[in-house]
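User: Let's play a game. I give you a shape written as C-alpha cells, and you guess the letters that built it. Ready? Here's round one.
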C-alpha cells in the first residue's frame, strides 16, 4: 500500500529504531509525540503511516490519538490561546473570558480561525492561581484577564505579526 506522505527522516529513523526493540508497539505514544512536535498535529495520513510502519491496527493509533488530550488532530493556529479553566480561574471569571474570545474570534473552543492565525484551547491549571484568571498565548502568560481585556489582547498579538506574513 503506497502512503501519500513521507515522514521527516528523523521521525522515520526513530520509528526504525523502535522496530528493533522488544515490544516495539509500546513506542506508539512516543512516535505520535515526535510527529506532532514536528508537524504541529496528527493528520489522518500520519496516523495511517504510523499504523503501517509500527504494524499495529489503525484503530489502535486513532484510539490513542483521540484518548489523550495532548494530541491535536487538526492544525493549530499560529497563535494558540489557552484559557485556564481550573477552579481558581473559573471562579474569577475565566468562563466570561472564554466567551469573549469565542465572540471576538468567531470560533469555539478547539477551533482555529479560517485565516489560521488563532486557535482557542483550554487548560486545567497553569499553576499561577493567585493571578487568576490566566491565559497563555503561545506560552506567554497573561494574568488577571477580564472579558474586557480580550479585544486588546487580540489586537496586541495582531500588531506583533510581521508585515511580511
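Assistant: Ready! My guess for every position:
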Amino acid at each position: 500500500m503506497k502512503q501519500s506522505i513521507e515522514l521527516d527522516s528523523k521521525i522515520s529513523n526513530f520509528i526504525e529504531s523502535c522496530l528493533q526493540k522488544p515490544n516495539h508497539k509500546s513506542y506508539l505514544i512516543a512516535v505520535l509525540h515526535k510527529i506532532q512536535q514536528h508537524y504541529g498535529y496528527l493528520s489522518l495520513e500520519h496516523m495511517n503511516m504510523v499504523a503501517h510502519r509500527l504494524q499495529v491496527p489503525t484503530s489502535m493509533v486513532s484510539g490513542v490519538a483521540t484518548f489523550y488530550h495532548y494530541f491535536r488532530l487538526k492544525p493549530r493556529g499560529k497563535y494558540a490561546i489557552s484559557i485556564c479553566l481550573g477552579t481558581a480561574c473559573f471562579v474569577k471569571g475565566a468562563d466570561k473570558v472564554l466567551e469573549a474570545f469565542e465572540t471576538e474570534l468567531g470560533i469555539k473552543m478547539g477551533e482555529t480561525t479560517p485565516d489560521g492565525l488563532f486557535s482557542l484551547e483550554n487548560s486545567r491549571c497553569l499553576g499561577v492561581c493567585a493571578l487568576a484568571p490566566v491565559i497563555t498565548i503561545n506560552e506567554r502568560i497573561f494574568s488577571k484577564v477580564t472579558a474586557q481585556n480580550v479585544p486588546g489582547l487580540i489586537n496586541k498579538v495582531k500588531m506583533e505579526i510581521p508585515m511580511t506574513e
